[in-house]
Design a protein that fits this description.
Low-confidence stretches of chain A: none
Number of helices of chain A: 10
Number of strands of chain B: 10
Structural class of chain A: alpha/beta
Shape of chain A: globular
Strand content of chain B: 25-35%
Helix content of chain A: 10-25%
Low-confidence stretches of chain B: none
Oligomer: heterodimer
Mean pLDDT of chain A: 94
Distance between the termini of chain B: 31 Å
Number of helices of chain B: 9
Radius of gyration of chain A: 21 Å
Radius of gyration of chain B: 18 Å
Order of helices and strands of chain B: EEEHEEHEHHHEHEHEEHH
Helix content of chain B: 25-40%
Structural class of chain B: alpha/beta
Chain lengths: 444, 251
């Protein structure tokens, strides 16, 4: 375990790291990338890290992260083999992209061989596919309110690029973000994912964030999802990093006319997770589903800030976030729905349900509706509380012990989200993970 | 099998049962009737161990064991079953999985081998066939979106899967049309034998047409005020409960 100095690391630490980064290997990047980075680090330096005095960070103190002077993670691909990743594969038949400490690992990657489907390292794509990458990279992930997005953009170096050409069907692709650590230094990676599905295309992408080894890590990721006209994208994100892991991330989606996006976020790991999700419905008839499930215990903390931005009329969005909090864990959910002027016939539904398994677990839920159109339907609801005693008694009266009944009911609560996972091997995988987690939690 | 002596119980400090005495032998079917608020459901829930009810006096023994000292799940394992008047809806848990968990919990506690999914499916199929029901409720979430009739049928299904020694039916007939009452009653009848006892709590005489009770008790103001044979049920149906109240008041 790395000793924890009591003083906090200043943003300068990362500005200095940037200078070093920009002056060595990273200098091989195209000029437009270098410019993007430079602008991003300047914005970061200007604002620094947010504090709990800022509304959007009120419930999440970053002090646990700022106690460490993280250094940029070195590529450790040589330290793991395909065998180490086997348990993280959701299905061996699904093509897989592996990133080790943010760096594309070609020897562990197997890309799909489908016409019209490009899967490449972002580093490669920034050079070879500028015409496809440049119009989108950092264009959707806005960093005005979130310096972590700036920090990620400043250190853009590698990641995953998926492009699905018009009417191409990419099938399923898994991206494994493996953080390989031996605990010698506290390391940070800034993985970047860009998924672009052109008109009429479809894809199903699973991003898994895992830790291999013991040590303090910080993943600061950004995922941009672009869904073209009448295109369809399922994006799943599983984060089950270690309890020594910090995780700041944001997912930005931008949808065109008649497109459908299902975006599902699963958080089981990490000591502290902050995830911002911004979904822009920017074409008539677009539909967006945003679901989340957290199952946390101990002193874990998760903070979701979500925005569903209805920019055009006749769009629909559904948002369901369930959280299970055991021990002294804590969940924060802030759900904003914006209906822009003229976005008539918007239909938006938001629900945030939190199950508190102990008296010391805590959840805060804040819905925020900003509606600038008059012919819309927006509903939101939040619940918070322990398992229903009536449900427990019902199960006990059928012979289940109280502990068993709790597990079954908690799993049932999680299943409300799990059952929405269309990708069958992933759903089974998640179901097993939740099952195992609940066993461990109740045993401990 | 079951001995209830001078049972006093209530909820939130208000006494509802004020000295109930009842003795049930194996193979018997007892009907407990009474007006609303007489304490019928309280009695049923106290026997099942509902945590909201507090027993202040008296005793209940089940096959020689102190039932009141047992947790709800221990009572289930010992063979006590309550078919609830208002079964709860549980989202996210499938009925089949719940039923399998319940059956296995009871088997495990009794030191029997647990059934795997396949074995359980076979057992369930057998049981459903015996009562002539289909498996349409099995794959849905527990009671979620069930009609009143489906909920009651689901309680009976659990009863049949768990094979209790003592089954308490709390107003299982309430809110059901006559066909549904008959369906439920027929399933119960199939399940009757000399080792098993039933307590049927009901407001109406209707279900008793099909069940033929050995004993009928009238509960009023938290006490059994009158007991008799099945003819008492007919009398109640014809005359209502008022004459009992008067009789008790006079007596």
């Amino acid at each position: 375990m790395i000793s924890q100095p009591t003083s906090l690391v200043a943003p300068d630490h990362y500005v200095a790291a940037f200078k070093q980064f920009a002056s060595n290997g990273a200098s091989k990047a195209p000029v437009w990338v270098a410019e993007t980075r430079q602008a991003a680090i300047e914005r970061f330096a200007e604002r620094g890290f947010p504090t709990t005095r800022q509304e959007a960070w009120r419930f999440t103190s970053l002090k646990p992260i700022l106690r460490h002077g993280f250094v940029l993670a070195t590529p450790n691909a040589g330290r793991i083999t395909a065998a180490d990743l086997e348990i993280h594969r959701i299905d061996p038949s699904i093509p897989v992209v592996v990133l080790v400490n943010g760096r594309f690992a070609p020897e562990l990657t197997r890309v799909p061989d489908i016409e019209g489907v490009t899967v490449a390292s972002l580093r490669q794509a920034m050079q070879d596919h500028e015409a496809l990458v440049r119009p989108h990279l950092t264009k959707h992930a806005k960093d005005e309110e979130n310096p972590f997005v700036s920090l990620n953009a400043a250190f853009i170096d590698d990641g995953t690029f998926v492009h699905v050409a018009a009417n191409a069907q990419a099938g399923s692709i898994q991206i494994i973000h493996a953080f390989v650590t031996n605990g010698e230094r506290a390391e940070v990676a800034h993985p970047r994912t860009l998924i672009v599905v052109d008109a009429g295309g479809s894809a199903s992408i699973v991003e898994s964030f895992v830790t291999i080894g013991m040590g303090v890590t910080w993943t600061n990721g950004v995922t941009e999802l672009v869904v073209g006209q009448n295109a369809q994208l399922e994006a799943y994100r599983l984060q089950y990093e270690s309890l020594d892991a910090f995780h700041t991330a944001s997912t930005w989606s931008w949808q065109e006319r008649d497109s459908r996006l299902t975006n599902m976020i699963f958080t089981f790991g990490g000591a502290l997770t902050r995830h911002d999700i911004v979904s822009v419905l920017d074409g008539e008839g677009a539909e967006s589903t945003l679901n989340g499930l957290s199952v946390l215990g101990g002193r874990q903390h998760v903070d979701y800030h979500t925005v569903l931005d209805h920019a055009k009329p006749h769009c629909k969005s559904w948002e369901y976030f369930n959280g299970v909090f055991d021990g002294r864990s804590r969940g924060v959910f802030n759900g904003r729905i914006i209906v822009r002027e003229g976005a008539q016939k918007t239909d938006a539904k938001q629900t945030n349900n939190n199950l508190l398994l102990t008296d010391t677990a805590r959840a805060d839920s804040q819905p925020q509706l900003e509606i600038y159109a008059d012919d819309v339907r927006c509903t939101h609801g939040a619940t918070l509380g322990p398992i229903d005693e009536a449900h427990l008694f019902y199960m006990q009266s059928r012979g289940l012990t109280r502990e068993h009944a709790k597990r079954l009911l908690t799993h049932g609560f999680a299943s409300e989200i799990l059952n929405e996972v269309a990708l069958a091997p992933l759903r089974q995988r998640l179901d097993t993970m939740v099952h195992d987690r609940l066993r461990t939690e109740s045993a401990g | 099998m079951l001995e209830i002596k001078n049972l006093h119980a209530g909820v939130d400090g208000a006494e509802i049962l004020k000295g109930v005495n009842l003795s049930v032998k194996a193979g018997e079917l007892h009907a407990i009737m009474g007006p609303n608020g007489s304490g019928k459901s309280t009695l049923a829930n106290v026997l099942a161990g509902h945590p909201a009810y507090e027993v202040t006096e008296g005793s209940v023994t089940f096959e020689g064991q102190d039932l009141l000292a047992m947790k709800p799940e221990e009572r289930a394992v010992a063979g006590v079953f309550l078919a609830f008047q208002y079964p709860v809806e549980i989202r996210g848990v499938t009925n089949g999985y719940f039923l399998q968990s319940a059956v296995n919990s009871v088997r495990k506690a009794r030191g029997e081998e647990e059934l795997d999914t396949l074995e359980f499916a076979e057992l369930l199929e057998e049981k459903l066939e015996a009562i002539g029901w289909d498996d349409s409720l099995i794959h849905r979430a527990v009671n979620e979106g069930f009609s009143g009739g489906e909920k009651k049928r689901n309680e009976i299904l659990q009863l049949i899967a768990l094979e209790p020694k003592l089954a308490i039916l709390d107003e299982t007939d309430s809110g059901l049309d006559i066909d549904a009452v008959r369906t439920v009653a027929e399933a119960v009848n199939q399940f009757r034998n000399e080792d098993r006892a039933f307590i049927v709590v009901t407001h109406y005489q209707r279900i008793l047409e099909y069940l033929t009770p050995d004993h009928v008790h009238v509960l009023a103001h938290g006490r059994v005020v009158k007991s008799g044979g099945k003819e008492l049920a007919h009398e109640l149906e014809a005359k209502g409960y008022d004459w009992i109240r008067e009789e008790v008041a006079v007596g």
